């Protein structure tokens, strides 16, 4: 399907300030000892991408060294996302639309599926993961079964989803996913919660990466796990470690029970509502006392894409769809790390602690399964031991003072006074303890906001809530 080297191959190099991240991640994650049991994938391996979105997994795989010509099949129901895939990956044919109409997996060696998380919401699962509405995962199993019948079962299957999946229905959703794999012969599996912030991206974004194989010679632990125990993640900048820094991300739409507070990072970018209403976070730039919201280009960078990745004209796309595409995407650097490990698996000695899959409780943050048995892997942290250094939000060149104005907008008076009001109330009622210097700066910002006549008299207070 891929005609030529895709456009991103040339656009990445010019990228602002974060171009070194991918190289660091690739170099460092190749340091491990190659496992004799797990043969590396060939860079020319063919990849079938389900629920492709804007191709975060696929761009990460290409960054890791997978040949773009191996990108055999993409499937995405959203018309605007399909236009982005077609543009950025130079696809020859159309991207398949609804997975329910897809008939085969094009003899893929690797299948990727970051399936929609709303189908795993508590409400969606009242019928169970096999229910009509929650059936998109079973569409993947249907396609794997069809491949198996033709003797072409993919060697690896990679799932990505929200960590809530581990807690859903007291672990029963995970049990169904694992059972679905095992029934198809994928009896070796491992998963691990990984946080984008540990992969050189200034965003807190925890996601489950789940990898399954059909052979004891393809040990998913050798891809997803670190070879040494007590892995905690990449070295982090000391300033952000202790909650300090000069740029702090938070959600101006929150402030009652939490704030999504993220020192030197953005909180998890969200896909927004089904109506495409964007919900970007805000940033407090402490040294200049500014409160801003990021541009979509900044959000793309924070997800590891080149700026402008989703800037593809599509008349049929939803308004503001770019925010939901970026908010739903898989961070490129995390997918790149997984891809690098598929190309260079390591020897892993993680033995794990057996756990009862049917115990009706949440599943651990990292675990693996071997022929029906399940083991927790408590030493596997949310980032690779051999990762690059952490990238601070304030270090992004896109946020440098001379470029900043193009990539951020001042937080509106309505938004700032609303969050200030909610935070003051939550603090007074003992629900939250926001930083005092942040609260003072926010109150000052509201009081002196140019859209606020006679501003100084009304710092915070009920009037702010109405805005
Ligand atoms: C979590 S997102 C995947 C994000 C993607 N991995 C990326 O990096 O951008 C899930 C995607 O599944 C798509 N989707 C939902 N229902 C679908 C269906 N029936 N067939 C194909 N794609 C579907 C959504 O439009 C959405 O883009």
What's the short version?
The chain contains 16 helices and 14 strands. With 467 residues, it is α+β, with helices and mostly antiparallel strands.
Please specify the SSE layout and strand pairing.
Layout lengths: L7 H4 L7 H11 L17 E4 L5 H9 L6 E5 L3 H10 L21 E4 L22 H14 L6 E6 L2 H4 L4 H12 L4 E8 L10 E8 L7 H4 L13 H4 L5 E4 L11 E2 L18 E4 L4 E5 L1 H7 L18 H8 L3 H12 L9 E2 L11 E5 L2 E4 L24 H7 E3 L2 H16 L7 H12 L13 H6 L1
Parallel strand pairs: 1-2, 1-3, 3-4
Antiparallel strand pairs: 4-6, 5-6, 5-12, 7-8, 7-9, 9-10, 10-14, 11-13, 12-13
Bound molecules: S-adenosylmethionine.
S-adenosylmethionine (SAM) binds next to helix 3.
Describe this structure in words.
The protein has 467 residues and is α+β, with helices and mostly antiparallel strands. The chain folds into two domains: 282 residues, Vaccinia Virus protein VP39 (Rossmann fold, 3-Layer(aba) Sandwich), CATH 3.40.50.150; 128 residues, no CATH class. The protein has 16 helices and 14 strands. It is globular. The N terminus and C terminus are likely disordered. The structure holds S-adenosylmethionine. The site of S-adenosylmethionine has 21 residues, from helix 3.
